[in-house]
Specification:
Chain lengths: ~210, ~180
């Protein structure tokens, strides 16, 4: 376990000593809970429409595919005209694009970022690396199936997919959200133990909270 | 380069010289000759810049080859020093006091090849890998395919084709 996560006694600026247990004090380790739809179907429908038009992408690039985000967020392809924008922190984002190969080291960070996002949240797997390992299928440190570790709503195939493919993907994602089928957050909560078991199988030095929230 | 080599040869015991280009040559040196030679090259011959420090695994010969590539900016020439180490429990003297950047290279080599550099600062910290639990992955006896198959699950319906065959079929379907 990392030094900064260990239980320790800290001396405050006023000389007062107190104990800190970072995993308990800084994070809520309670597993996520399923959040069923709160309203009647017809109201939820309106909500889903609104959600689909309010996509905020987490600015987190993992593999080569992240390079396609730059032309997308600049005038050439201009994803903003589709109501898609980028945010710098997981707390403000609801769509996580895993943009390519994911080494186990990055997977750790991806899990922590995903868990800190608020419901409803969606995941898109970009490129063949997230689907079946792609050209890194025999690599010693990249995972080969993203959906074993995070609930994926949509895959965009290609190596790497062009910005046009991503734009089409966003439209597809909106359809899924409007249909009320983008239940990744709840899927994750329901199968939390399964996801955790898979994650821990590849992350050999688990040095983070069980659930980062 | 030949002149430099002749000059160096009078001072140090050197192996053979391989001239790759006019401005790039490699010299094999013994382990204990490296430090004085590096200092000499840096302070007397103008090779002030350590370009890289890397390793090659000659598994069949039971040896690691370390390559120290130095650059002489004013003279626009590079020289590479090769040091052969026995592969079993390979260790090498650290040169971080000659070039501080070497510490980073040495840390990488320790992690990826398992070559020890005692006294190099932070050499035992994790560099790229986290929680690695096998032999160092750049060693050639490390089987990356086997490791990946044991650790990461495949999508069951994954198909693979031989790229050469596949492209032949795509481009020249009649040729059978
Ligand atoms: S799918 Fe291709 S472009 Fe994307 S991360 Fe993998 S290798 Fe890179």
């Amino acid at each position: 376990m990392k030094e900064e996560l260990k239980k320790r006694v800290i001396k405050g600026p006023d000389g007062f000593e107190f104990e800190v247990d970072p995993l308990q004090d800084y994070y809520c380790e309670a597993p996520p809970t399923v959040q069923p739809a709160a309203y009647q179907k017809i109201v939820e429908k309106i909500f889903n429409w609104a959600r689909s038009e309010s996509i905020w992408i987490l600015g987190f690039g993992t593999g080569c595919g992240a390079i396609e985000m730059r032309p997308l967020m600049t005038p050439r392809f201009d994803a903003y005209r589709f109501g898609v924008q980028w945010r710098p922190t997981p707390r403000q984002a609801n769509l996580f694009i895993i943009s390519g190969y994911l080494s186990t080291k990055t997977l750790k960070r991806a899990i922590r970022s995903y868990e800190q996002m608020q419901n409803p949240k969606y995941v898109i797997g970009l490129g063949s690396c997230t689907i079946n390992g792609g050209m890194y299928w025999d690599s010693y440190n990249t995972i080969k199936r993203l959906d074993d570790y995070l609930p994926v709503d949509l895959y965009i195939a290609g190596c790497m997919p062009r910005p046009e493919a991503l734009l089409a993907g966003f439209e597809e994602m909106k359809k899924i959200i409007r249909a009320g089928k983008a239940e990744g957050g709840n899927l994750y909560a329901e199968n939390f133990d399964w996801y955790k078991a898979n994650q821990k199988k590849v992350i050999h030095d688990w040095d983070m909270p069980e659930h980062s929230w | 380069m030949q002149t430099l080599y002749t000059k160096l040869k009078q001072l140090f015991k050197l192996g053979e010289l391989t001239e790759q280009r006019q401005d790039l040559a490699f010299i094999t040196v013994a382990q204990e000759q490296l430090r004085p030679l590096l200092l000499h090259l840096r302070d007397r011959e103008g090779f002030t810049h350590l370009v890289l420090l890397t390793a090659v695994d000659w598994m069949e010969e039971g040896q690691f080859q370390l390559t120290y590539l130095l650059n002489d900016r004013a003279g626009a020439r590079d020289i590479g020093l090769r040091v052969m180490l026995p592969r079993d429990s390979a260790t090498m003297d650290s040169i971080h006091d000659i070039w501080p950047t070497a510490a980073t290279y040495q840390r990488e080599l320790r992690e990826m090849f398992g070559i020890g550099f005692p006294d190099s600062p932070g050499v035992n910290d994790e560099f790229i890998l986290e929680g690695w639990n096998d032999i160092p992955p750049y060693r050639r006896d490390f089987d990356t395919l086997k490791y990946s198959e044991e650790n990461y699950s495949h999508r069951p319906d994954r198909e693979t084709t031989d790229p050469a065959q596949h492209m032949k079929q795509q481009l020249y379907p009649d040729e059978g």
